[in-house]
TrEMBL record:
Lineage: Eukaryota, Metazoa, Spiralia, Lophotrochozoa, Mollusca
Enzyme class name: transferase
UniProt entry tagged with the keyword Endoplasmic reticulum: yes
GO molecular function, one term: dolichyl pyrophosphate Glc1Man9GlcNAc2 alpha-1,3-glucosyltransferase activity
Principal subcellular localisation of the protein: endoplasmic reticulum
Pathway of action: Protein modification; protein glycosylation
Family the UniProt entry places it in: Belongs to the ALG6/ALG8 glucosyltransferase family.
Compartment(s) where it occurs, according to its Swiss-Prot or TrEMBL record: Endoplasmic reticulum membrane
Pfam families named among the record's database cross-references: Alg6_Alg8
Domain of life: Eukaryota
Identification of the protein by name: Alpha-1,3-glucosyltransferase
Enzyme Commission number, as recorded: 2.4.1.-
Any Gene Ontology biological process: protein N-linked glycosylation
Length: 356
């Protein structure tokens, strides 16, 4: 399905707008998680296919109703083929209940490393401190770290309903959508908006799966040769994001394999991009990263040593089985949030990008 995503984006970059819309509609019907980036497609197609721009300025009088109808027909046709049998059998409510399972709770059993993981961690920390200091009543709830897929309530911080995550997600992507509409940067701007839209949905969405990080990483690959800063963010995000998937390969037989694959990929990525941008390895920093960023990435090593080689042999490992998962999620959250902020900054404020 990622192949279909890249295919659709490639069609867009080549101004094959109808084909891009077609393949993205197909992709949505394969996996609705790509709805995260649908706003980018809508805005870009509306601005660049239904309107014309002269010298970067949008010509409102150039709006083409025929082109809008054509786009609508393509999308509706794909959805009709997909949902037609369910409509005929009157099973649409059942389909929608499975597509949007709001009863599953704010976070997945393994917290995706996003803003809500940090929120949960703060609530958990305050709960334990409050219990030790006799500031909270009752027994601290452990349901957030119980490994169950269900709704739960925070103990100290306010509980988060789905509408709050929706508002947070929309707020996080609005600057990117405004940037795409008012300051269209052509194909590069489209890719940047896709990445930012995926970022916002991942960081603030409801019941986000950890695998959704790949929806950010893969489109970002298309930008690594544009600017040095893009390559730097890619190295931080891909290294952190790929490591955050380690808990999905949880058996001891998989430990060596996943570590070797991760190590091989990281060495290749840092070496190749460092060579392109003439940034070498040093004792104080990794290629394209500053000292603090390098320290953060290197910090993944002791974290993995603790998770795989030390924690399983401790006396309390069976009592707190979720601890390695929580540490991984929280640690990776910092790197992903940092990458989002840095990418937003260079996208919105880099004057080197020319309007098209």
């Amino acid at each position: 399905m990622f192949g279909i995503l890249i295919w659709s984006m490639t069609c867009m970059l080549q101004d094959q707008f109808i084909w891009s819309a077609l393949w993205f509609a197909v992709l949505l019907n394969f996996k609705h998680i790509y709805l995260y980036i649908a706003p980018t497609y809508f805005i870009y197609l509306l601005r660049n296919y239904c309107f014309k721009a002269t010298g970067g300025s949008l010509q409102w009088s150039s709006f083409s109703p025929f082109r809008l109808i054509t786009l609508g027909f393509v999308v509706i046709y794909v959805f009709a083929l997909s949902f037609g049998p369910f409509i005929y059998l009157k099973q649409v409510p059942q389909v929608l209940s499975r597509l949007f399972p709001f009863k599953r709770g704010l976070c997945h059993a393994y917290w995706a490393p996003n803003f809500w993981a940090l929120y949960n961690f703060v609530d958990k920390t305050l709960t334990i401190l409050g219990s030790r200091l006799h500031l909270t009543t009752g027994t601290p709830s452990a349901v957030m770290t119980g490994g169950l897929v269900q709704e739960f309530h925070h103990v100290v911080l306010p509980s988060v309903p789905p509408v709050v995550t929706l508002l947070a997600t929309v707020t996080s992507i609005l600057p990117a959508m405004y940037y795409l509409w008012s300051k269209s940067k052509g194909p590069e701007g489209f890719v940047r908006a896709v990445v930012l839209c995926a970022f916002g949905s991942y960081l603030f969405g409801w019941h986000v799966h950890e695998k959704a990080i790949l929806i950010i990483i893969l489109p970002l690959c298309l930008l690594v040769f544009y600017k040095r800063e893009d390559a730097s963010i890619f190295l931080i995000l891909s290294t952190t994001g790929h490591y955050s998937l380690f808990p999905l390969l949880f058996t001891s037989a998989e430990t060596t394999t996943k570590i070797l694959f991760m190590l091989a990929y990281s060495v290749f990525a840092f070496s190749s991009l460092g060579y392109i941008y003439k940034s070498n390895w040093s004792w104080w920093s990794l290629p394209l990263l500053n000292s603090l960023e390098s320290l953060y990435i290197v910090g993944l090593i002791p974290l993995e040593v603790w998770n795989s080689a030390i924690f399983p042999f401790l006396d309390f490992s069976e009592q707190f089985p979720f601890l390695p998962l929580m540490l991984t999620s929280v640690y990776c959250s910092f790197g992903i949030v940092y990458s989002w902020i840095k990418f937003y900054k260079i996208t919105l404020f880099d004057r080197k990008l020319k309007s098209q």
